[in-house]
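Entry:
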Amino acid sequence: MRLKDLLVGLAIMCLWGFNFSVIKLGADQINPIVLTTLRFTFAVLPVIFFIRYPRVKLRYLIGYGITFGVGVWGMMTSAISLGVSAGMAGVLMDLSLISSLLIGWFVLKEKITIRQYIGAVLILIGVLASLGLQDGSVPLAGLLLVLIGAISWSVIGLIVKLAKPEQVFAFSVWGMLFAPVPLALLALISYGPEVFTALPAQMNASVWFSVLFQAYPTTLLGYWVWNRLIAKYPLSTVAPLTMLTPVFGLLGSMLFHGELVDNTKLLACGFILLGFLIGQWQQNWFKRQTCVSSGTLR
């Protein structure tokens, strides 16, 4: 990758990593499902009026919106509100590697390589190690919600693969149109109308910052830039950058929320990140980087 694009990619990973701390900022003050509802409402409006409807079947858009809104971020935000630290939330999200392997195996009949098996085992060891943390940063209830979020992230990949959208960003925006209503209904059923009647009094400056940061820089800007990088470079060149997201997530939690990182947490994070790296490793990463540096890849 060119240096400019590499720096942009690193900035997006930093943005996505720090977003976990911003989520915690809002989830500590208002209902997590309502917070996620506001995130996707602002992410869709008003930008959807300026983006053409993608040429895909409606069921894929609906599935994407519900899975992305409720399954991924509704559960992840709820997990953070239950006590999962912002740093560990980003790291544990790498559980999606395991669920992606299983979905690929069961649904798409893909083969699982030895390397992917090893990566999955290391991630599971890291998760088990995280259960031994004594600082309350990975409560069991929160871990279960993170697991749902990770599985949902893998399901999103399956939906996109089946939909085969030509304009991925338009597909994402129009898909997110179907996230706010299910989220609002979930909040209403789970917590009652009080979460909405109390909302005006709770919307202070930090909550607004959390909502708008998640909606615009993280969701719209982040995915727009990411899709441009994917369109410009081979996926095998761009994909390794995503492994930096949990690293920035942990750093952000340390900086903004004072999260302490002891030896057990380092061990858990190390196993999970190493497992993710091994499971995602491709032999042509280094070869492509060499081609780029020599000027043969444009």
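DSSP finds 16 helices and no strands in the chain.
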